[in-house]
Amino acid sequence: MRILYVEDEKFLADAVIHVLEKSGISVEWTDDGEEGLNLAMKPIYDCIVLDVMLPKMSGFDILRHIREREIKTPVIMLSALSQAEDKIKGLNYGADDYLAKPFKTAELIARLQALSRRPALQDEKVIRFGDLYYNKENRTLNELDLTEKEALLLETLLQEPDRAKNKEYILNHIWGSDNYGDDNYVEVYISYLRKKLKKLNSKVQIKTIRNLGYKLVSKVE
Ligand code: CA
Q1: d(C-alpha 10, C-alpha 172), whole Å
Q2: How far is the centre of ligand 1, averaged over its atoms, from the C-alpha of 17 (Å)?
Q3: Any domain includes 165
Q4: Containing H/E element for 145?
Q5: Measured between alpha carbons, how far is 5 from 76 in angstroms, rounded to an integer?
Q6: Residue 221: is its pLDDT beyond 90?
Q7: Is the full-model pTM beyond 0.85?
Q8: Which secondary structure element, helix H or strand E, spans residue 108, and what is its range?
């Protein structure tokens, strides 16, 4: 599970992250509301844990913005203000859960696990892999436009990503079975796609596997 955690109390954040990571949850943390919003706009997290009082932008505003833009990532709000009013406000803006501070990290983990067991709210037109999100409908990779052939190549690599695809398989998928069979096409488009991954600073790479073909691999964070 991969989560985004927006919390400006560093001491608390450090303690929570330590426990979450020990439970196998990968955490991306920021203490800044605006940066929190930028990160939250990427549909790559299984859950977002949002503090309410934050520098530059409140947790409520972050939540409202992402829901307006139809980002459906589950959100747990954290607040020292345990008043019913605050809880209602969060839930109205589209929070999935609410935890009053102080809380036990075990409680947060239990809520995260409960949310991750829900059927995926994910958009079916978006395919995720590592830090990438590919939108099939408008052929964008993390908002970067792909050409038709690059998009088809990426879709091919994203199918059963654990399995390497050889050049013949890729040629058939992109240029059809009656292609003029030029392996160079594949190499050329692999290099185009690699350039785009580099441009995005993605942790995902296209690996060449000897005698087997190509495969997407996400570097461990
Ligand atoms: Ca705070």
Answers
A1: 52
A2: 16
A3: yes
A4: strand 144-145
A5: 10
A6: no
A7: no
A8: helix 105-117
Task: Determine, yes or no, domain membership for 162.
Answer: yes
Distance 46 CA to ligand 1 centre (A): 22
Distance 50 CA to ligand 1 centre (A): 9
The rounded Å distance from CA 110 to ligand 1 centre is: 22
Distance CA 175, CA 152 (A): 9
Residue 196 lies in a domain: yes
By residue range, what is the domain housing residue 197? 126-218
CA of 116 to the centre of ligand 1 (A): 25
The whole-angstrom separation of Cα 209 and Cα 212 is 5
Distance (angstroms) between ligand 1 centre and the Cα of 95 equals: 17
- Residue 43 has a pLDDT of 82
Does the bond joining 55 to the residue before it have cis omega, within 30 degrees of 0?
no
Determine the pLDDT at residue 136. Answer: 87
